[in-house]
Amino acid sequence: QVQLVESGGGKVQAGGSLRLSCAASGRTSSSYAMGWFRQAPGKEREFVAAVSWSGSNTYYPDSVKGRFTISRDNAKNTVYLQMNSLKPEDTALYYCAAGARPVNYRLGYNYWGQGTQVTVSS
Hints:
- It is built from no helices and eleven strands.
- By secondary structure, the protein is mostly beta strands.
- Strands 2, 4, 5, 6, 9, 10 and 11 form a seven-stranded mixed beta sheet that branches.
């Protein structure tokens, strides 16, 4: 079992930045690929970023590429999502997830956190 706890969400104006953290605990948590997803009210949960277990490979959809950066510190069992140039459409509940491979679909992840809210005002 892997437990995931997100933090770092909040309210920010458009153009601002936030850094989300996801603390992992449990057996061999550092050997999992990690992903971030988000879900806005009335919308499906969508892929935001993923990183391989080593941290050497990262993946993003076009909607956040160049603005968001995922990274991990396996010594601290923590994954980060640096979000820059935030837009109102980035407003959502952000979840981190752990799985076998850094894929861009929900079913590829076995463990999920409870989410942290990000609100971007115009």
